[in-house]
Amino acid sequence: MTQLKSSFSIICAMLAAGMLNGCVAPDDPGPPVVDAAESMTFLEAGLRPEVLLFPDYMLMEDFELSQHGRIPETRLIGAGMRTKLGLRLVRNRFSDELLAQGWTVDKVEIGKQSFRLMAKNKGAEVEIRAVQGTGPTQVFLLYLPEPKPVFNPTIDH
Fold first, then answer.
1. Distance of alpha carbon 26 from its chain centroid, rounded?
2. Burial of 53 by CB count in 10 Å (0-12 exposed, 13-18 middle, 19+ buried)?
3. Secondary structure of 17-50 in the HEC alphabet?
4. Looking at 47-94, which runs of residues are DSSP E strands?
């Protein structure tokens, strides 16, 4: 939370400085920062990709996957989901499923209309955040897969 507040303060200061100095937008904004081929895939409602980049048990029944893909220049995999289930039920279902699959839940933060759950399993990590407003519960998943072992030909295997 402190990091979020300090980031917000920095952004506000930059905006204020820009207003005082007079902002001028460039004529040509240039190419996108993220290559379209590397960006996250947005899915049509109800569709499930042929290959999930995170464990399939994390996409549970009653959850609709809206986007999913690799985050460029990292090993992270991101996913966006939504469900009609309430926030408490979503948190309980993820907690129960992760425990059943051998994950260790390290931290759970519960807010009035949100939660954050972090867990580890061997070398893999997951962070699940969910927010519920007036519509469906929005679930955001960041998954860091277990690092693949590096093959060293000089060592006998």
1. 32
2. middle
3. HHHHHCCCCCCCCCCCCCCCCCCCEECCCCCCCC
4. 63-70, 77-83
CA distances in angstroms from 140 to 9, 32, 120, 137, listed in the order given: 25, 23, 17, 10
Q: What is the DSSP letter of 55?
A: -
The 10 Å Cβ neighbour count of residue 54 is 19
Sign of CA pseudo-dihedral 70, 72, 75, 77: negative
DSSP 58: G
Domain ranges of the chain: 36-144
pTM exceeding the 0.70 threshold for the entire prediction? no
Task: Read off the amino acid at residue 93.
Answer: R
Report yes or no: 130 and 139 within 8 Å, Cβ to Cβ: yes
pLDDT digits (tens, 9 = 90+) for 41-60: 555 555 566 678 899 999 99
The class that CATH gives domain 36-144 is: alpha beta
| Token pair belonging to 98 | 């992760």
d(CA 35, CA 44): 21
Residue type, 140: F
